[in-house]
């Protein structure tokens, strides 16, 4: 056994020892790693008698590390395998907790309530992923309600309604009902009128500053005790658009001395001069605030369980006042923390992304640099990979971090078997080829021989990636072709068999003929150009393939001069 092979065995043994130790949160064991080590490196088998003694000291060194040091070292050596292992562990623990008091309901009914002010960023995927999963768990109902009753500060985008429904479909769910709150304004007016008749609401023309001072001092508004008839008349004037923005509001009468000032006589309706962008709602000027609109709709649509952010706890408390007036039972509430996503330089915010698009800094909602569902879809990420990652976060009240490596590991599991392999050389260096076969025939997929092989003509010259170019006189193995030795600007076939690879003497690299398919690969870090093997030119648009040693990509556009692909992940 030469020194180079010995070093390779020790290096692989360290990786497998770390995988074993991190997975089981214990010390690694020589016997436990022998199987995976030999299975992944069949050329080690001829030295099977020597290997246990060789790797014993390596395993001992690994076992001296702390748990954190083991994980950090594994992340350095094999980040992809660590990510896959952690994704599998998360999947094992990802069953959502039971919803509270489900046994008290004939049917679990839940809702996602998006504001359609733009397409969804990645964080928005968590709600439909979890609600859709709960629907499947309980054979319940999934309602999508567009909370679009703010035509000014969160102005709806007319294209967002269908875009959001399209995102939900991509994630693998079909709503049982779709509602637009802006279609239901008359319903909110009717319940406001009932509330006024009960003495539970009053019209108020105080300035925002004046009422805030009264509220913070626990003092009642001077309009609070006006008779219901006057309130009703003034509310009808609001409905008719007789007031301008800021001139009049309708307040829910609560407890003016409540310990939480945010709950004191909160606004249920306000005047907005800006017309709604939907033609069907453009004439309304008196608009319900979200807490009133959402509370009424949750009751009328039979919602049994609500999931909302931990920062919205006051919403439930405000709505409870309305429910008490009407004698309704409030739905069960699950509060959760915010989800934060790594790997992006762009803020996960609809308004921030829109600003970048308007400024021309990114090309659109599906630009690979932005953290949107449309972007991941264009890159070839399956919706199920996102759902599994989001469900794996659970429903903790703490803020949670979503690692994109988890999404990528999930997606790799979903697509690996079905994606054919091809070669792409990025910004390659050209070499003439002397000797050897006229063409190479690597398999379309190494695990499925029945799919056949590709035909890669060698021609007069080939391209190698700069990092793969051998030094003068050194050999490399061109995948599907054979061993070559560099002699100046040429690669000369040596006739060596595969043993030189098995023995670890020769690196295996990919390549492409110089007259292959020009490719532009769009990535999160910018565009990369290269040349792919000729058979890649037959892959249809929207197909996912794996460029060997580069990563998975989705074929986006077959142009006259180049093919555009979107990089998914390694």
TrEMBL record:
Motif 'HIGH' region location, chain numbering: 114-124
tRNA synthetases class I (E and Q) anti-codon binding domain segment(s): 509-556
Disordered, as annotated region: 433-452
Alphabetical keyword list: Aminoacyl-tRNA synthetase, ATP-binding, Cytoplasm, Ligase, Nucleotide-binding, Protein biosynthesis
Reactions it catalyzes: tRNA(Glu) + L-glutamate + ATP = L-glutamyl-tRNA(Glu) + AMP + diphosphate
Limits of the Glutamyl/glutaminyl-tRNA synthetase class Ib catalytic domain: 107-409
Keyword Transcription regulation: no
Alphabetical list of Pfam families matching this protein: tRNA-synt_1c, tRNA-synt_1c_C, tRNA-synt_1c_C2
Domain of life: Archaea
InterPro entries for this protein: Gln/Glu-tRNA_Ligase, Glu-tRNA-synth_arc/euk, Glu/Gln-tRNA-synth, Glu/Gln-tRNA-synth_Ib_cat-dom, Glu/Gln-tRNA-synth_Ib_codon-bd, Rbsml_bL25/Gln-tRNA_synth_N, Ribosomal_bL25/Gln-tRNA_synth, Rossmann-like_a/b/a_fold
EC number: 6.1.1.17
A GO biological-process term: amide biosynthetic process
Main localization, broad class: cytoplasm
Localization terms from the record: Cytoplasm
Domain Glutamyl/glutaminyl-tRNA synthetase class Ib anti-codon binding, first and last residues per copy: 420-489
Enzyme class, UniProt record, top EC level: ligase
Gene3D superfamilies, A to Z: 2.40.240.100, HUPs, Ribosomal Protein L25, Chain P
Function in brief: Catalyzes the attachment of glutamate to tRNA(Glu) in a two-step reaction: glutamate is first activated by ATP to form Glu-AMP and then transferred to the acceptor end of tRNA(Glu).
Family membership: Belongs to the class-I aminoacyl-tRNA synthetase family. Glutamate--tRNA ligase type 2 subfamily.
Full protein name: Glutamate--tRNA ligase
Organism listed in the record: Haloferax gibbonsii (strain ATCC 33959 / DSM 4427 / JCM 8863 / NBRC 102184 / NCIMB 2188 / Ma 2.38)
